[in-house]
């Protein structure tokens, strides 16, 4: 049977480890979905209808069933709160590498703009030589240097 119970992280931990927890009427109907045995469910409902609390625990078979189904008792994927250090390190490595490369490109562009602004004749001469070298196929850079 699938049951929704509003449980704290400590109560979830106790259920995962096979310990018993006390469930009140206010906890029933919302929160984490878990799979419990029909007999346990019937006993819990009887006690809750009388306004009493019920102590429930899960057998090994129920715990395994919850693991296989991937219910909220064990979490699914990253919902369990566990983050892989290796994945995180890889993301930061890629981010820092891209950031550094963007910074180098920005610095190069800024330097070229500065040189053009301070000495426009030199930059125009280099542009003209590049145009000539593309047309003729001769490396004029060796001649100029």
The ordered string of helix (H) and strand (E) elements is EHEEHEHHHH
What Rg do the Cα atoms give?
34 Å
What's the shape?
Answer: rod-shaped
Strand adjacency order, main sheet: 1-3
- Class per helix and strand makeup: mainly alpha
Number of helices: 6
Biggest β-sheet strands, sense, barrel: 2 strands, antiparallel
Q: In total, how many beta strands?
A: 4
Q: Share of helix among residues?
A: 55-70%
Proportion of beta-strand residues: 5-15%
Arithmetic mean pLDDT: 79
* Parts with pLDDT < 50 across at least 5 consecutive residues: none
The first-to-last residue Cα distance is 84 Å
Describe the structure.
The structure is a single chain. The chain is mainly alpha-helical. The protein has two domains: 2-80, no CATH class; 87-144, no CATH class. Helices cover 59% and strands 10% of the residues. The protein contains six helices and four strands; from the N terminus they run βαββαβαααα. It has helices at 9-16, 38-49, 60-69, 85-118, 120-136, 140-144; strands spanning 2-5, 21-23, 32-35, 54-56. It is rod-shaped and about 95 Å long. The mean pLDDT is 79.
């Amino acid at each position: 049977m699938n049951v929704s119970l509003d449980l704290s992280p400590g109560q979830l931990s106790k259920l995962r480890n096979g310990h018993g927890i006390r469930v009140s009427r206010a906890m029933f109907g919302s929160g984490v979905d878990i799979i419990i045995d029909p007999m346990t469910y019937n006993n819990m409902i009887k006690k809750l209808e009388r306004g009493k609390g019920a102590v429930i625990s899960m057998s090994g078979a129920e715990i395994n069933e919850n693991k296989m189904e991937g219910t909220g008792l064990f979490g699914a994927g990253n919902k369990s709160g566990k983050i892989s250090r290796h994945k995180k390190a890889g993301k930061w490595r890629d981010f820092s590498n891209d950031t550094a490369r963007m910074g180098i490109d920005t610095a190069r562009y800024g330097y070229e703009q500065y040189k053009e602004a301070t000495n426009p004749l030199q930059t125009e001469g280099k542009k003209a030589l590049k145009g000539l070298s593309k047309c003729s196929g001769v490396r004029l850079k060796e001649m100029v240097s």
